[in-house]
Write a structure and sequence with these properties.
Elements (H helix, E strand, L loop, with lengths): L17 H7 L4 H7 L11 H32 L6 H10 L4 E2 H7 L12 H17 L3 E7 L5 E7 L1 H4 L23
Antiparallel strand pairs: 1-3, 2-3
Helix pairs in contact: 4-6, 5-6
């Protein structure tokens, strides 16, 4: 008695060819894609047609992935995340309130490659360079005011619109956001 289940050349029904199995179940390409079946071939299209369909789908997915990567890179650059790590550290320490370069100098510890601390004036100049970079990229607001000793003092503050977009790289949590404030104007 002959079985209705197709078998391979040796008569082993467990090794049914993919096309024969697809024909047995009358599997269409649409069903194969929808159900994510990979062990049976579609019976309604040729192998070349199916290959062309999968090539086209892969090409479209690759285009979408590349577009997402480009969009993410644009967003990162717009948010100023293409900063040098030194500039990034100054930006994160800065906070939402006005701070002077002297206050930042007390919080930030700069070291030489050999591990020794920078002299105070060298550190101040390094912070000023970072502030100049951040100000050029329009990530911070800077103003000069007269200090308590009658000397001009540079004060800096983050631009508020960027705080919600950025993430804190130290903790991985979203940047500071006031519960009362909103990103939309009312």
């Amino acid at each position: 008695m002959k079985s209705s289940v197709p078998s391979n050349a040796h008569g082993n029904p467990s090794k049914i060819p993919a096309l024969a199995c697809g024909r047995l179940f009358r599997l269409t390409l649409e069903e194969r894609v929808k159900l994510d079946i990979r062990t049976m071939r579609a019976a309604d299209v040729t192998k070349d047609e199916a290959d062309a369909f999968y090539r086209k789908r892969k090409l479209e997915r690759d285009r979408q992935r590349q577009q997402r990567k480009r969009d993410e890179l644009r967003a990162r650059k717009a948010a100023g995340m293409d900063l040098d790590e030194r500039d990034e550290a100054v930006f994160l320490v800065m906070g939402n309130e006005w701070r002077t370069v002297g206050e930042l100098n007390q919080v930030i510890v700069r070291t030489r490659p050999d591990g020794r601390r920078l002299p105070k004036e060298s550190q101040r100049r390094a912070i000023r360079r970072s502030i100049d970079v951040l100000h050029a990229k329009r990530l911070i607001v800077a103003e000069t005011v007269i200090g308590s000793r009658g000397q001009p003092v540079l004060r800096v503050q983050r631009k508020l619109k960027l705080i919600d977009k950025r993430r804190d790289f130290v903790t991985g949590t979203p940047g500071h956001r006031d519960k009362k404030s909103s990103t939309r104007r009312r």
